[in-house]
Amino acid sequence: METSIPKISTVLKTLLRADFTTQWRNRRAVVLTLIVPVVILALWKVFVEKMGGPFVLSNSITIGLVATGLMGYSNSIARDRDKGIFQRLRVAPLPSWTIMGSRIIVQIVMILLITTFVFIIGKQYDGITLTPLAYVLTYFTALVGGVVYLSIGQMIVGRIQNPETVNSASRFIYFIFIMSGMLGEMYINEVGKTIHDIIVWSPYGTVKTILAAGMEPAKWNNNASMALLATLGYTVVCTTLGIKWFKWNTK
Amino acid sequence: MSKQQDNILTVDGLSISYGSFNAVQNVSFSVRRGEIFGLLGPNGAGKTSTLSAVEGLLKPQAGTILVDGNNAVSKPLHARASLGVQLQSTSFQPELFVIEVLQLYAGVYGVPASKADLMGILREINLEDSAMKKFGELSGGQQQRVSLVIATIHNPKLVLLDEPTTGLDPQSRRQLWERIEAIRERGHAVLLTTHSMEEAESVCDRIAIIDHGRVIAVDTPQGMIDKHRDDPEVIAVSRRGRITLEDVFIALTGKAIRS
């Protein structure tokens, strides 16, 4: 006997409304993830002339993306899994991918919002403006970059069950990315070439490279293309492992 | 109507393992349309694993589960559409208000419901004033009422309740029993797991006792008492001069405390 099951579009619309409402009610946490990029824009005003606007903007956006993908996404998934929220949804007649799909769509919107926010602050405070093509390319590279951090977040939440450990691990990786990414590049002589290369080809470095190249399309070179490929590679590997390791409940 | 069609749920030869541990072994039982069926067993007996397999949360190693004729493994979405579920520890997004949680579950079950409809549902369970409260702000009894109303929001043919009265005070428990009976009166079947023999005796039409992953007895509560009334083990554990379902349960499953 056939029983009617709800349309995917209805299910997704409903999940999205709930997930966006949840995100909106957590806006204080969202504001906190924006603080670090804003602080960078404020403190690095001096670097705009020395190293160029794209250097400062790309670092700010990258930090914002890391905060959203690594900490925001992984912590919310770990919490909801621990509370049994996913299990309750999974006993409803909906495909499991819609539950995660809705969460990821919300995060993608957050990536675009962070990028827009950094553009606005960068223009207002540091006077950094880009060409229309550069804005379009930067949104694209921000999406690609944001997704790699979401996939790393997925990998963390796949590997680690305890929400507090997920929180600690994501904060630790966030800290490593900030410190090695920002300071490693600026103090190349002190850290040495090998460490510098590791940083440049880390998920932080490749995302920063493609963002900076997107902001100056004329300067997009082979190095930027390789960084884009590396970013996509990281995404594929981390997503595959993240999905493979992921368990819907902690018991 | 054939026997198969008469059953809303048929579990046949179900086996579930976690590594080398066999949690459920060759379990078979059926739930008839419009009946309240209780699955009883000590901790770790395999009740929740059995229910999880019916809900589609666990993939069994062997066996067949038919929900209203739909195979829970090969057609999970169709099977789940016929099920209303209240999990042992239900939690909803803590940021959402009660009315929004109802809206979410009406949507995922494909039930077209306006805000007025949902307020009407809350009015029926005396929670209209709590519509704009968060789920976590409700008392245990209120949370159970909301969970139960969500489990039945799509008018399912079978409602699964996993230890629904755990942690409830006597008043809330009694009220929940009345609500479970009201679900049956509306034509739904109910499969519930419980540790409370009092609950099983009061509410269930039939019960199955499961222990060490196997079904060891299936009957009506009174039928089970009558059948085992004269067993020496039952008489030995009887404490009140009359044989209760709890005496039969203890005699069948043993006195040892389970983890």
Keywords for this entry:
heterodimer, A: 251 residues, mainly alpha, globular, B: 259 residues, alpha/beta, Rossmann fold, 2 domains, six-stranded mixed sheet, four-stranded antiparallel sheet, 10 strands, 38% helix, 25% strand
Quick rundown:
Chain A has 251 residues and is mainly alpha-helical.
Descriptive account of the structure:
- Chain A has 251 residues and is mainly alpha-helical.
- Chain A has helices at 8-25, 27-43, 45-51, 53-83, 85-90, 96-126, 132-159, 163-186, 188-191, 193-200, 203-215, 222-245.
- Chain A is built from twelve helices and no strands.
- The longest helix of chain A has 31 residues, at 53-83.
- Chain B is globular.
- Chain B has helices at 3-6, 47-55, 76-81, 98-108, 115-124, 140-151, 170-185, 197-203, 221-228, 232-237, 245-253; strands spanning 7-18, 21-32, 36-40, 62-67, 70-71, 83-86, 158-162, 189-194, 206-211, 214-219.
- In chain B, the strands form two sheets. Chain B has a six-stranded mixed sheet, sandwiched between helices. A four-stranded antiparallel sheet of chain B has the order 2-1-4-5.
- The chains are: A mainly alpha (251), B alpha/beta (259).
Provide the fold topology:
The complex is a heterodimer of chains A (251) and B (259).
Chain A: H1 8-25, H2 27-43, H3 45-51, H4 53-83, H5 85-90, H6 96-126, H7 132-159, H8 163-186, H9 188-191, H10 193-200, H11 203-215, H12 222-245
Helix pairs in contact in A: 1-6, 2-4, 2-6, 3-4, 4-6, 4-7, 4-8, 4-11, 6-7, 7-11, 7-12, 8-10, 11-12
Chain B: H1 3-6, E1 7-18, E2 21-32, E3 36-40, H2 47-55, E4 62-67, E5 70-71, H3 76-81, E6 83-86, H4 98-108, H5 115-124, H6 140-151, E7 158-162, H7 170-185, E8 189-194, H8 197-203, E9 206-211, E10 214-219, H9 221-228, H10 232-237, H11 245-253
Parallel strand pairs in B: 3-8, 3-9, 6-7, 7-8
Antiparallel strand pairs in B: 1-2, 1-4, 4-5, 9-10
